Amino acid sequence: MSLKTSSAAQEQREARQNNPGWVTVLFFLGALSACVPLAVYAYLGTFSRYLADDYCASTYLYTSQNIVEATLRAYSLWGNSYSRLMFSQLIELGGVNGIRAMAGVELFLWALLLTWMFAEAAKLLRVRIGAFGYVWLAGMTIALSLYQTSALYQILFWRTGLIPYSLPLLWFIGLAIFFLRYLQKPYAKPRAVRAGVVFVVLVFFAGGLSETTSGMLVGMMFVAVTLTWWTKPLHQRRDALTLLTVGLITAVIAISITAASPGTSNRLGRIMRSSPIYNPIELAGDVMLYTSQFLFETIKSYPSLILVALMVSFCIMFLTLSMRDQNGSHIPTSYLRWALLIAPVVVFIVVGFSYAPSAFVRTFPAARARYASHFMLTLGLLIEGGVLGILAARMGVFAKQTWSRVAVALLLVGLIIHPLRSAPRVYLLHYEYEKFATQWDVRDAQIREAVANGETDLVVVQLDAPGGVGEYKNNPKDWINRCVARFYGLNSIVAP
Fold this sequence. Notes:
There is one protein chain. The protein is mainly alpha-helical. The protein folds into two domains: about 400 residues, no CATH class; about 55 residues, no CATH class. The protein has a two-stranded parallel ribbon with strand order 1-2. The radius of gyration is 24 Å and the shape is globular. The N and C termini lie far apart (about 70 Å).
């Protein structure tokens, strides 16, 4: 038996010894309950269809020789996100079935990556809460953030909204996993060089998905550099600081490429009624105002979700550590106390950076552009609750009392019920989504039949798309109508 296999077996034995059976069952039920609303969201995704910009992106792909040419055309004419079409192309391989499957695939990968990230972070903290605990935290993070947004359809079930507004979060999580795993091995120059090249490529592609998430990426990298420098006495890894600094520079380059796009100028020329904000002080003031407004309105509108996010991570961490009769971390208590103060600041900074592009054009971010902020706020609350759980577990008088463990366990039982209660409310959306999908399929079949019969100018029935997404109507010269016509190979199409 190899040393690696022996070590893994030892860790499994320790996990069995340290985790009582009832705690494992409790965590399993929690993980299962958190996955229920995600499964409902995945089911709703089967009713997704082509809408608005989807047609335009597909025609760019169909009429170009390759993905590079399509990207350059989109970048120069209207779009500014240089890596977005790469994912459109991937989904387009399945046609309408690719559109139907994209939400489910994203949710599965999202939960998987977030679970992995929590597990890697726990290794650095020398805390092991078990696989079901990580899944529970991951599922709750996604479900709670999705439940907050008013632009659910646009960021999850519409390809043009999913790619720039929710998909980048998976990419960011992947970057975090990459960095956390890099830290687990000692410095070696060849490995550091390889990691640096891969990290730069990943950051560059992540920065090309949208200006909003590109701004958030810059904020995340800035925070990561600052925190790594501040905690240098704990790890003594200058290579980690160098890696993140290079990543920050790459993120700045990425958002600069986005801002310099001719497509950006074309769009701003049509929608801007006043000049952008070039004064950095005025811009910073608006960013802080928008960020404060977002946080205030979210906390005011969803106080129960805020409490659930705090409590679930607190209870999982406290119960795990107190049942093992250990403090669970080699990090000094002073650093954990600082973390309680720093976590809200980090969330504010990251959200603020994501709002900078909107503030630049004097606009409060649209609901779909705010979704990443909901996710980061929820993640920050879980981190805050987890740190509180570690600190509570270090309070021996409190942590070793049977009544405190029973109380926390009962609270976790209540938290298991929460996502089960929200799932039926989410499921009710299927009536609207299914109706639209059925009507879209009928109209799509009629259009394709007409095209097969040689018709070039069509009049079809108008549909009301879910989630406030645009539909083509009675003007054949409207940009959506023109994209739809090119998509089907028509001269014109209207839907009066």
